[in-house]
Design goal:
single chain; about 325 residues; RNA binding; CWC22_splicing_factor
Length: about 325
């Protein structure tokens, strides 16, 4: 290395180990030939026959550096692939611009965002996200980006809820990350916009209905110190859950709370909320028929919670 550096410093190429001056001299001669326009020498002539030119599609353009045999069918395929990739490239630039606006400020978040935006459906998105091969903290970004995208939609898009459900079914670690993320959103309800608030209600109601998450997600709520955003949020989530879930599933969803003795305070808090905050509001703002239906559902929930509690005491 030292000899090479000294040779370069002194402009003495001959002292460089392994230096071969022949290629350089050959290029110099070729350059002089071209500059003086003395006609192309034999070294510049392409030894390509007319037959090779005429059959280039079959035998390939071997005289081009880096070229190989392609054949007509493959040439057509390559052409069609190029045409197919052009719209994708344009779309990708638009998605990347949208990612910038959505503050996807790392490569991982941008990759996840682009998969979400370009997938055909939630199953396609699920497979592509798994193929990213993310680990640990990187993997959690899937949940964070998914929730952010869902909440920022102008109108609620169930695509994100079905994808979230798929991840929760796939591995419990995703379920836990969703729960922690929802907890953060519940603590910050007062700062959410109307659209974000509404999308969060729909997302959580779906995850509860499909049992992707359990009602223990509400254990961060202090039922003795409820503010208006939390009351409004709980009313909407519980309304969707009670009105759109069949009786058997409803019993199962609320029954899961009694499987854990440590959730006694949450059970009491929910019963109190349903009786004093939920039903009174329903009777004041819903039709008599709907109010009666919801009253029956609340009574079923209370019986479920009470029956399970009695078993635990025994």
């Amino acid at each position: 290395m030292l000899e090479t550096m000294l040779a370069l410093k002194n402009n003495d190429m001959r002292k460089i180990p392994g230096y071969d001056p022949e290629p350089v001299e050959k290029l110099r001669k070729l350059q002089r030939t071209l500059v003086h326009n003395s006609g192309a020498g034999r070294e510049t002539q392409l030894r390509v026959s007319l037959e090779s030119l005429l059959n280039a599609d079959q035998v390939g353009r071997w005289w081009i550096v880096g070229s190989s045999w392609s054949g007509a069918p493959m040439i057509d395929s390559t052409s069609s692939k190029t045409q197919q990739k052009l719209p994708v490239g344009k779309m990708s630039s638009k998605i990347l611009e949208l990612a910038r606006k959505q503050r996807m400020n790392t490569d991982i978040r941008r990759n996840i965002f682009c998969v979400l935006m370009s997938s055909e459906d939630f199953l396609d998105a699920f497979e592509k996200l798994l193929k990213l091969g993310l680990k640990d903290q990187q993997e959690r970004e899937i949940v964070h980006v998914l929730i952010d995208c869902c909440l920022q939609e102008k109108t609620y898009n169930p695509f994100y809820a079905y994808l979230a459900n798929k991840f929760c079914e796939y591995d419990r670690r995703f379920q836990m990350t969703f729960q922690f993320s929802i907890w953060d959103k519940i603590r910050d309800l007062g700062n959410l916009s109307t659209i974000t608030f509404s999308n969060l209600v729909s997302l959580l109601a779906h995850l509860l209905k499909t049992k992707s998450l359990s009602l223990s997600v509400f254990k961060v709520v202090e039922f003795s110190e409820l503010d208006k955003p939390k009351v409004h949020f709980l009313r909407q989530v519980l309304y969707i859950l009670l009105i759109k879930t069949d009786l058997e599933e409803l019993t199962s969803i609320f029954g899961r709370l009694t499987d854990n003795p440590k959730l006694g305070m949450l059970r009491e808090g929910l019963k109190l909320f349903l009786s004093h905050f939920f039903l009174k509001n329903v009777q004041a703002h819903k039709s008599a028929e709907e109010a009666s239906l919801l009253k029956d559902r609340v009574e079923l929930v209370n019986r479920t919670l009470q029956a399970r509690e009695s078993r635990l005491k025994l």
